[in-house]
Predict the structure.
Amino acid sequence: MKKNGKRSHFTPARIGVYGFLLFSAAFFLAPLYIMLTTSFKSMDEIRLGQIFSLPHTLTFDAWRLAWSEACTGVACEGVRAGFWNSVRIAVPSTVLPILIGALNGYCLSFWRPRGANWLFGVLMLGAFIPLQVMIYPLVKLEAALGMYSSLTGIVVVHIIFSMPVMTLLFRNYYAAIPMELFKAARIDGGGFWRIFVQLMLPMSVPIVIVAAIMQITGVWNDYILGLVFAGRENLPMTVQLNNVINTTTGERLYNVNMAATMLTSAVPLLVYLVSGRWFVRGITAGAVKG
Amino acid sequence: MATSRLKARLRGLTPWSALLPLAATVLVAYLGTALWSLWISVSNSRTFPGTEFVGLSQYERLFDNDRWQHALYNLGIYGVLFIAACMVIGFLLAVFIDQKVRGEGVLRVAFLYPYAMSFVATGLVWQWVLNPESGLQNAMQQLGWQGFTFDWIIDQDKVIYTVVIASVWQASGLVMALMLAGLRGIDVEIWKAAQLDGVPAWRVYLSVVLPMMGPTLATVFVLLSTAVVKAFDVVVAMTQGGPGTASDLPAKFIMDHLFGRANLALASAGAMTMLLTVLVIVAPLLYLRSRKKEGGHA
Amino acid sequence: MSRLKRTLVAIALLAGGAAQAQAPKAEVIHWWTSGGESAAVKTLADAYRAQGGVWVDTAVSLGEQARAVAINRIVGGNPPTAAQFNISKQFFDIVDQGLLNNVDEVANRDGWANFLPETVLNVIRVKGHFYAAPVDIHMPTWIWYSKAAFKKAGITAEPKNFDELFAALDKLKAAGLVPLAHGGQPWQDNTVFSAVLANVGGRDLYLKIFRDRDPAAIKSEEFKKVLLTFKRLHGYIDKGSPGRNWNDATAMLITGKAGVQIMGDWAKGEFNQAKQEAGRDFGCIAGFGPKSPYVIQGDVMVFPRSTDPQVIKAQKLLASVITAPATQVAFSIKKGSVPIRTDVDASKMDICAQAGLNIMKDKTRQVGNGEAYMTPDQNGALQDLMTAYWNRDIPVEKVQKDLLNALRD
């Protein structure tokens, strides 16, 4: 942020910046390198245990198997089988929690009804409970409400478990927005919903992006909740992925496992790539002055 | 007029009605299940909830357990290192990426992709890398550097550090993204003013920017803390809690007893203990914060 | 669509639906997800279909997870028709809650009490009723060795007892190979412990420890000897052992880098994948001596409670199909396991499986694994102790004392 619009020179500081970033990138990318090379090797070569070496002979079999032929039970159809289920679960489970989180954050930050902070406090404490501990009572609850083992059931569960994080994100983001802005909007005659939709939401783009990144990743990679609550017809891709990778006494095809993992993570990765356009600065800046 | 007063009253209710999902979730899902867990932890439950009240005997059994004690000790080390490393690395990455570097999009994905991948596979990769026979140590020695050792993963005392490394690798990208969003919410004018005053960049960051990112830092800290308390996947994928039980963490202990050992009561006792610990640490802080904020804005 | 067409389509659907409604439909939760396991469970599905049933597959990897899903489904009121469990006490709590149907009719009609090993009967028969249908039997404590590695180390004969085994391990070490290929995960550490207890302690001590949890036996000198032998084996593993998957350890035998591995009969799957043959490339030892215990573990199907006659019909058909001799042989060949009944034609099974089946015919050699006798919790506590002892320097007396405490109730 030191130069505005001027061409960058090769100053020591500049070299330092790139140096640090490239070195860090190498550390972060190393496991990806291993995953990629493993996925292109044959099992015989993998058994030799040379994880850093490039494949002697490039085989794409693992990718084909992972997508459409790997065994996940009686069915041997790869991870492809769960793709659309994951989409059907992920869309409502991303949109709804973000909306509710934004609403909660907005309400807690600006309107602050009495006792709401207590609710928020308990919510944050709830975020520390491992979700597996909550499964049994939630199963009974959903069964009583008639939504166990259904798409509704899994979306509700995702809303419940993401509420602490989403609310926290938005509440703290709105905390950084000056109160004057809000008061000015009220004086101008704005009501609860109008201010929310016309003022706050447009200003929330960066945090919505971050929230979307977190929520899509969390939901797409979720395994245990989908397994327990979604019902047999809605099992997400992660169930197939885990069936391909995990086994107690079966054989392990590491190349297929790596390929399957990368295929499954393609959707969150796409989201990250696309989200770049919105990591822009100055969304609130103009508003403050204005 | 009566109707306008009624309208005003109704409008006053709007914030409350908007919070209904929150209230329902907190009271029923969280508070409800926490209380249920509390009841289970003082019962004789096994695979299913039991009906007998057994007092604190589950807690006694818990704290008598070598493995649980070691898991708590590991949690302390893991928690401190993980949170510190993620915040520092995440902040540095965000700051450096914010310097109008070329290829920012690619770099951002390079740091974020670990977060997108299931730990089931990436944990195994880290195990391979850190294993002295197949991983980094072996590769370095083959390249000629004979004295190189990096066998923490088989060392009883150092294995927890390897878990930290893999976890930091996975989470730093997200911290970076959060910090970047926070950084980019800061007024451009600040930079211009600092430049005019001739203040060096690092000084600006430390004395001006960092304090202004208070809420972002708070968010990140809480997120990382919840991740620490619930950390479980990484241990299962990398070390299976081993060697032996050296890299065990409370969440894995709880999970093992919940499903594998069919001991709902002991698992719940563990979960309650963790919750109580968090409460004890966090409650005073929250209380102080809420008092301070009485005047200010959130 | 015209009205006539619509009516015809409706009739066709109804008719088809009605026909479906008659065929017994079984949704089965299991954890057979790898390639070899998939081929094996397909034999069950095929056999079921051949009898007119419809197999609905719900595979969930890892036993613990699959069982958790089954239990949650039962609790949530949406139970599967059948769910896989182990030959163990895992499902006893479910029986206690009255959440399982029994299959007494099939068991009595097909005469299960006549051909099932006693270990298996004791587990599936609770309070006089049969609550599970056995599917397969695995032996977890086989001793595998690589012929290539043995040749390189100059070992000419198969070891016949633990002293000879240690001598062989020494020779392998001298030849620069890894003597014992081991994956340092708690369950694998326990497999080695069970093998030592069975072979060094003998059947009586084994049962006194696992089945009776006899304090005198735990404190005895013989058990101390077992523990010390167990710990002695730790000196023969390589540094990279902790955390290693069992397949990677078998891979060391396959590539000739290591000599011996103590692992269950499912290891054959890895050897087969690498196109290696029993007797030619690798050897398998069930135990030392003509009376070595044959440790029995395996899988069963339980049948969640339902009063729906269609479901009960499907469950009975499943129980009967699974335990039929032809299904048993077909399944075992694909799975690498041993059939639950010895009155089958074993000629198509590999030599290690045939050897195992022969030993199993001798009732005096049958024992169960830890989980067949202890609750999951007790078994887990034992496992924690043994893996700690394997990895750390703990005085053997302390281990005995801790074990006494852990297995007390």
Q: What stands out?
A: The domain at 142-295+369-406 of chain C is CATH 3.40.190.10 (D-Maltodextrin-Binding Protein; domain 2). The mean pLDDT of chain C is 92.
